[in-house]
Specification:
The relative contact order is 0.14. The chain is an alpha+beta fold. It has a domain of 83 residues. The radius of gyration is 25 Å and the shape is extended. It has a three-stranded antiparallel sheet with strand order 1-2-5. Strands 3-4 form a two-stranded antiparallel ribbon. Helix content is 16%, strand content 23%.
Length: 133
């Protein structure tokens, strides 16, 4: 059976309703990057991560002469020897067909267009500025 397309009727129905179900544990997470590629089965795999500086396992602070805790730790673990160390915490991933990936890409492009339209400064006449000027 071919996939339903927008506007297709099912029997005598003229429209279809989709209801969304969320588990009680549903909790969107922030991501500022992704890593992925094509799986051996020809699907797209995306793993979303949050890139940040590492948090030490423990820190030891000293006391200043006036009894206050010092501003900087006197030692901490682990001690990384690299000049710049960052952690990419992978919180979730998705695997999808290429058809779904194309639909997701179209959704993202539409949302970016809406965002760009809402964030384009208007000229005094109220019209968006001409990109060629």
């Amino acid at each position: 059976m071919p996939a339903l397309q927008q506007g297709d009727a099912v029997g005598d129905a003229k429209k279809v309703l989709f209801k969304y179900k969320f588990p009680e544990t549903y909790n969107p997470v922030y991501a500022n990057g992704a890593h992925g590629g094509i799986t051996p089965q020809g699907e797209l795999c995306l793993n979303f991560f949050l890139e940040r500086q590492p948090v030490p396992n423990k820190e030891t602070y000293g006391f200043s002469d006036d009894g206050r805790v010092t501003a900087k730790p006197i030692e901490f673990e682990p001690v990384d020897k690299a000049d710049a160390v960052f952690v990419r915490y992978v919180s979730t991933g998705v695997v999808m067909s290429m058809d779904t990936a194309r639909r997701l890409m179209a959704l993202i492009q539409r949302q970016l267009a809406v965002f760009d339209e809402l964030n384009t400064p208007a000229t005094p006449s109220g019209e968006p500025p001409n990109a060629e000027t």
